[in-house]
């Protein structure tokens, strides 16, 4: 008897939000009151299998991705078999981001691209679950040709052609195997952002740094950009506490104009930061390049990418020297299909990738993809790559990222690790989850949705 | 008795679509079935005055801007007086595009920025109506300091500071007056895109070119990029018919990668196009610069901007030499507040502005703003600027743009000319307007909205 093909039959979407603004967790100089949120999409099939994908947002606006997703999905996936999508996934991806009417409201940026990410993540989750593998393993087991087939090369062929990609991905199977084993055994280095938030007092910073040092961490990042004197104070304390050798990074969250960024960072250069992250507008490729050039003599690189909208922008940041550390985001880009060519371009142009994590589900997705890419799936990584960690909210996920000491370890469960626990859905669906109802009743939150 | 201040009390939004895809009007190599659409916002006040603003889209997705607008509006404008907004309009604009949670799903790009445009356009319309002036006249009558106050300089101060802007805008009042009078008398040059759509036969092109020549037009643009042999054929016919001296432009609508764009345009160079428009991804600043450099020896410039997402991108296109003709769009940018600094940067870097028009209401907005900016409001324009014309659908507007011969003339009615006739609203609201109901019943259209 012929097997019935796995077919996508419907879509659920959920607007999940967590009231993190009540504690100001994750706030920075620009994003002052984030409610960490997930626009969750669940693909239903003609079997018991589902595909789950999310987009990370910080609250208001989460339902816009949600509406967009429902709309895009009905056109593009419902009724299709999984195989008809993944057999020519690169082409499917290109058709989706270039849908003839919807592309006008993007293209490949902002809300519509965030929604694309959730959908594409859900397809990868479904695919990996059908194969009974975590996503990284699915990627590792693909042939170079299969990997190339999930990518779309439109608009990047001046830097990366399909043929080059194929060549980069073709390596000795023994080397690939060895890298995979090393990664499984040693995990993957992470850094922490938890020790030096804006406004922390000296003693609190010192205590936190020591705690993290004791737990095995040796890379630290702190927020800067609100007040130069306060930045100097906190950097002084961190540098003193962690010693002269460990890496210290700083993050301005897009606070400055170009001349101000250069001035400010020269003032902080004595603390020898490894990088300045998001010094100015995430769209300002030439501005980042100018900042990078001015700071190179001080040994400070520029890191950016968490708000970099698509692979065409990454291509240029890499070409222009505007990015010494490439912080690709699993939801800002349109899923693994777009992350892969960015990794390859970064490899070609010799820029290390340090994926953005720290939002809801981002740690989990990074654990799935960056591991696969530093080891065998992409076969190309040679440089040390870090990503940040902030573990809060992972308790709401079925399979939270595994972090031991200052290292992540790859998930063993099938799928893309984007599945929320049922209790999280019933408590944190906005605005009708039990927890939101309680907060709204108590006057601690309000329903800002109007759709 | 003290006058009661004009206050915004509520917001209406309408999803207006016109079934242009049934005739394939406006289709190109990438946007194959556009339904020209407007996400219309109407600001209600404590008086009989209203402010109308629109965003142009091409169909599906129009309701997303619509939902976004309602949401953003409730936070940001309802309850405010008009004066509290416009007295410090630049700051208001900056707060709006950097709203602490919503900025995550942009920032300043895609859906959220299109929605910003509709809202900001509506505020300008309301303001101009209160003053009893067309928007261009309102701008002309502002002092340099007042003009600078509506702008936001965040992220562009490396190219344009507030002080430079003030300096550029300060000119002899007699010169300003003279420019205004010239503009009112002579109007403003336009070009036509109607003579050479993809697939038109030789004879049809020849007849259309002659008709337009007879009507006084002497600049022609045709679509290219689908088939090189067909492009050569149509360019040959147009060049023969319009003669060697008149300007001929070509538009690829983002069809190519960078190397392909250079190859293709060299193949078309014998027909001496003035510019190649949108040769590749609208995000590819460095790609455009590379194309421009390769085509400069052939006398071909690069035109782009209708999908350029914000002033930070325009800044870079201008800096990098990626744009020899700056095609700013009245809805893609966040309204006049953002158009003004782009005009000033283009002026400083010696690049002519040729605003994007041709969509619903775009001609009307261009007539309001580009006129003001070529004459006195901005006080800075010296170079010839063109914009395209396509008059269809203007019958649905209360005050369609006035075009005589190949020249536009500025509107005399108060406001920003974005007001639809009541009949248009009742017929073309999607999906419940009478015309859409008829089309859906007849099986010629379907309701793709799911919200």
From TrEMBL, chains A, B:
Necessary cofactors: Mg(2+)
UniProt key word Magnesium: yes
PROSITE patterns according to UniProt: MR_MLE_2
Stored SUPFAM superfamilies: Enolase C-terminal domain-like, Enolase N-terminal domain-like
GO-annotated molecular function: hydro-lyase activity; magnesium ion binding
UniProt protein name: Mitochondrial enolase superfamily member 1
Pfam family, one: MR_MLE_N
GO BP annotation list: amino acid catabolic process; carbohydrate catabolic process
Organism for this UniProt entry: Amphibalanus amphitrite
Gene: enosf1
Gene3D superfamilies in alphabetical order: Enolase-like C-terminal domain, Enolase-like, N-terminal domain
Mandelate racemase/muconate lactonizing enzyme C-terminal domain span: 202-298
Entry keyword set: Magnesium, Metal-binding
């Amino acid at each position: 008897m012929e097997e019935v093909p796995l077919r996508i039959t419907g879509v659920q979407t959920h607007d999940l939000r967590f009231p993190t603004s009540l504690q100001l967790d994750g706030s920075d100089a620009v994003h002052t009151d984030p409610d960490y949120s997930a626009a969750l999409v669940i693909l239903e099939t003609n079997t018991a299998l589902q595909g789950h994908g999310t987009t990370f947002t910080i609250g208001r606006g989460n339902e816009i991705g949600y509406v967009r997703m429902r709309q895009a999905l009905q056109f593009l996936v419902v009724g299709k078999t999984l195989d008809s999508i993944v057999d020519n996934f690169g082409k499917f991806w290109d058709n989706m981001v270039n849908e003839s009417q919807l592309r006008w409201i993007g293209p490949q940026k902002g809300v519509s691209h965030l929604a694309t990410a959730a959908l594409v993540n859900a397809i990868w989750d479904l695919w990996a679950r059908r194969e009974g593998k975590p996503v990284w393993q699915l990627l590792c087991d693909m042939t170079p040709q299969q990997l190339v087939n999930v990518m779309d090369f439109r608009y990047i062929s001046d830097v990366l052609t399909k043929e080059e990609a194929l060549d980069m991905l073709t390596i000795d199977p023994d080397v690939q195997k060895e890298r995979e084993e090393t990664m499984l055994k040693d995990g993957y280095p992470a850094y922490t952002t938890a020790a030096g938030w804006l406004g922390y007092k000296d003693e609190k910073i010192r205590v936190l740094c020591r705690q993290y040092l004791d737990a095995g961490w040796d890379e630290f990042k702190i927020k800067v950009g609100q007040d130069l004197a306060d930045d100097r104070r906190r950097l002084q304390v961190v540098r003193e506490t962690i010693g002269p050798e460990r890496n210290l990074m700083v993050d301005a969250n897009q606070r400055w104009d170009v001349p101000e960024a250069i001035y400010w960072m020269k003032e902080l250069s004595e603390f020898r930061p490894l990088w300045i992250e998001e010094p100015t507008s995430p769209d300002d490729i030439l501005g980042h390049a100018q900042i990078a050039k001015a700071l190179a003599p001080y040994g400070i690189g520029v890191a950016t990418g968490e708000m970099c909208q698509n692979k065409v922008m990454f291509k240029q940041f890499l070409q222009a020297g505007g990015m010494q550390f490439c912080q690709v985001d699993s939801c800002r880009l349109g899923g693994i299909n777009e992350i892969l060519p960015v990794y390859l371009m970064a490899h070609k142009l010799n820029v290390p990738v340090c994926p953005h994590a720290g939002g809801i589900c981002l740690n989990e997705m990074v654990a799935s993809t960056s591991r696969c890419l530093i080891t065998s799936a992409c076969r190309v990584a040679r440089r040390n790559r870090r990503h940040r960690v902030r573990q809060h909210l992972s308790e709401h996920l079925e399979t939270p990222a595994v972090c031991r000491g200052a290292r992540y370890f790859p998930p063993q469960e099938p799928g893309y690790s984007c599945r929320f626990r049922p209790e999280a859905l019933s408590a944190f669906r906005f605005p009708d989850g039990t927890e939101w109802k309680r907060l709204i009743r108590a006057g601690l939150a309000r329903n800002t949705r109007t759709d």
